[in-house]
Structure formats: structure tokens, C-alpha cells
Amino acid sequence: MNTTPATTVEAVVTDFNVVTGLSKSKAPLQRRLSAMAEMYADQEAATAQLTKEDVLVYEFFDMGVPSTSGDVAYGTSITYPGKVGDEYHMTKGHFHEVLDTAEIYYCLSGRGYMLMENPEGDWQAAEFTPGQAVYVPRRYAHRSINVSDTEPLVTFFAFPGHAGHDYGTIETKGFRKLCVESDGKPEFIDNPRWQA
Ligand SMILES: O=P(O)(O)OC[C@H]1O[C@](O)(CO)[C@@H](O)[C@@H]1O
Ligand SMILES: [Fe+2]
Fold it and tell me: Which UniProt keywords are given for this protein, alphabetically ordered (predicted)?
């Protein structure tokens, strides 16, 4: 009996280190401060830092699957420790182009938060500690934030292949909340530059 399906898709095998998130078989996509300096609240601090060094804020490995609704896009994300002024290092953050798609993140190492907000005005911050999974519900923009002084924040993520990335909305409006260090601890405060 011939059991070969009409379309055959090869199983894809990739690797990533379960603590560092680094992959040997894939090239990382890297975002340095210069690629997102205008997203930080303290623009003077961002400019001053850029004159010294264009630091690597985060990198991620996209394991490379097709962008179709039946597929699951996945990879690892590594946000390095550091601050711009009082604001912790973070990813750019995005809505999904297909707003009604969720995402799951599993924290492999480090410490931080997933900051989320939806167009209806709700916002939430879920803690990342190793071994905990954060489910980003449909319609929520999401940004990873590293609140450790020393350790990278490493997560594994998975989302529907057809979700797409809408970076423009956050680039224009920003997130409603910022995560800053206050008395040595992370605190979420209103973003004075947030645009309704
Ligand atoms: O896409 P951003 O906001 O730059 O953040 C990076 C992370 O988010 C993802 O796009 C997944 O949501 C990953 O590819 C990556 O780890
Ligand atoms: Fe996403």
C-alpha cells in the first residue's frame, strides 16, 4: 500500500542550548541600541550611550518554518542585561498582523517580564522565571523585558505561522507602560510619550 501523502514536508531539526538559547545551526537576528534608541523614554541617556557603544540589546533565532496557518513558528529569544537611563533592556515589541493570534513563551533562564497590552486598553505584565510559561493572548502586543543586572533573559517562543509582525503600531504609539528601576526594583509606570 502506498501511504505517501499528496504533499510531503520534511521534518525540520534544529538545535538550541536549553540555558543560553543559542543555536549552532541558525544565524541570529540581532538588534542593537541604534535600531531602537527612540523607543526608550530617556532620549538623552540613549544618545549618550550610543556615543560610547552600540550595545547588543537582544537577539533571536527564528527556526524557519513556512508562514502558513497550519504551521507553528518557533525559536529562542535572548535579551541582554542593561538599562537605558532607568529603563530596562527590552525587545521592540509588536502586535501580530493577524491580531487574533496568540503566542506562548517559556522562560529558559534569567529574570524579567512579558509586557502586554491590547487595543481595548488592557495591559498586563507577566513574570518570567526559569520553568514558567507565559501565554500571550490573542490581540495583545508583547515585549520582553530583562530586569536582571547580570543574566540574559532567555525564552523559547511559538506562534501560528501566519501571524505576521506589526511593528509600526508600537513604533508610533509606544507601550502604555514603561518598566524602570526604582529603589533597586522593577516598577511599571505610565509612559509619558504614549499616544492614544
Ligand atoms: O519581534 P521583536 O519585538 O523584535 O521581539 C523579538 C521576539 O519576538 C518574536 O518576533 C516572536 O514574537 C521572536 O521572533 C523574537 O524572539
Ligand atoms: Fe509575537
Answer: Cytoplasm, Gluconeogenesis, Glycolysis, Iron, Isomerase, Metal-binding
User: For residue 67, what are the domain limits?
Assistant: 29-190
Please report, for the domain that includes residue 60, its CATH number. 2.60.120.10
- 31, 91, 140, best to mutate for ligand 1 pocket (most atoms within 8 Å of CB): 91
Chain centroid to CA 75: how far?
Answer: 11
With a CB cutoff of 8 Å and minimum separation 6, the contacts of 165 are: 94, 96, 97
Report residues whose beta carbon is within 6 angstroms of any ligand 1 atom.
60, 62, 75, 77, 91-94, 103, 157, 159, 165
**Whole-model pTM above 0.90?**
yes
For ligand 1, atom 4, name the residue with the nearest CA: 92
Query: Is the residue at 89 inside a domain?
Result: yes
